[in-house]
Amino acid sequence: MGSVPRTLELFYDVLSPYSWLAFEVLCRYKNIWNVSLQLQPTLIGGIMRDSGNQPPAMLPRKAVYMRSDVRLLSQHLQVPIHFPKDFFSVILKKGSLTAMRFLTAVKMEHPEMLEKVSRELWMRVWSRDEDITEPPSILAAAEKAGMSMEQAQELLKRVSTPQVKNQLKETTEAACKYGAFGLPITVAHLHDETHMLFGSDRMELLAYLLGAWGGAMVPGQLWGKLEKPLLFLCCTSFLLGLALLGIRPDITPVAYFLLSLGGFFLLGCLLACFLEWGSRSVQTESPGASSNARDNEAFEVPTYVEATVTEPQPQPHPQELDQPPSYSSIVIPPGLEEGQPNHPEEPRRARLDRRVGSEGSVTSASPRRPPVSLRLRWSRAASTVPDLQTLWTTPRLEPLTPPPAYEVSCDHSDDDVFYGNNWTPP
After folding, report:
1. Residue 351 — very low, low, confident or very high, per pLDDT cuts 50/70/90?
2. How many other CB atoms are there within 10 angstroms of residue 424's CB atom?
3. What GO cellular component entries does it have (predicted)?
């Protein structure tokens, strides 16, 4: 009865919190939308260098917004995200090269474990502030996800092999060919057409492309909205008809008309219920869904094991005032002579332009005029740009759903994700 599933590819990196949000939404709705979800581990550092983009945390205003945005989205989608205490070291310096190579090896050898191992790595770095770069950390994450220690050790040995490196490189290059400039991206293959959607906030558009009545953020179905109004009209018509029969027997035709109208509304309500049930059955039924125990149920949020996140202690650290540039020389336009009165009809001619130069000099635009001595006497301004190192010490986020407990710690010397002149392919 079910239609052939459509294909969605999710390109992601465990360094990206937005990738985690998109990952969870797609895992929850893949059966509802009847789609075949293909997870594609990708290296975000390669995409950044190929596109010339830079992480949002490198810009102060984007960094402040990102923290607030991720906090609200994690509450809304019930994904337990906590920012690492040493954000710049964990995310921008250590990177995720070893972790993404390991996930690539998992996909090649044990694809059925890719979803669980990916979620466990996200839990470590974005929920419990644990390492994901050292081999013991990755082994602990794999074991926590349900993989045997022998399997995990064998996959870890393959991380440095050319097969795994080339596969991660090909996946990253494929994302770049789709037009990626960051992660996550969702690539939908529908009716011989390909659509690339960036970010975790395009689920309404994805539901539209899939023709889904109810999406991750889309309200209930049309037929479900009609049930209550039709039921209300049905009850009202029946009550009015019965009341008229009891009070005024001489207007029996009107009473019968209202009773008939009530019956019509009742049939409409039953038809709406049937159509809603039928549309949900078509969307949720997919080949092999009943035999796959890992498939998420409709609208089901994964159960996370509670994790303890310690609140970082604020470090006293006086913020230095940004010194403004030296005050500039001022250029006087040629038409503005000394002592010449200002004319209302020519206000722009009297405008003075600031140019970077030494303090205390004025230069005339006319070479015949001698320089005039001038001292500018206004107070210097202190920068209000927030200190980047203090952006990540705000109080911790308590998630709506307790996070799962996973443990580990890591670092890799060649995992240079955001820095360096040239990107070395994985």
Report:
1. very low
2. 12
3. cytoplasm
pLDDT category of residue 419 using cuts at 50, 70 and 90: very low
CA geometry: angle at 104 spanning 101 and 109, to 5°? 125
Residue labelled with tokens 């950044």:
48
pLDDT one-digit tens code per residue, 302-325: 555 544 344 444 444 444 444 444
Residue 279 contacts residue 226 (beta carbons within 8 Å): no
Q: Is 193 helix (H, G, I), strand (E, B) or coil?
A: strand
**pTM beyond cutoff 0.90:** no
Sheet architecture: strand order including 193-198: 35-41, 6-12, 185-190, 193-198
Burial 325-352 (b: 16+ CB within 10 A, else e): eebbbbbbeeebeeeeeeeeeeeeeeee
Among 62, 81, 61, 63, residue whose Cα is nearest residue 71: 81
Q: Which of 323, 317, 321, 322 is nearest to 389 (CA)?
A: 317
> What percentage of the chain has pLDDT greater than the value 70?
61
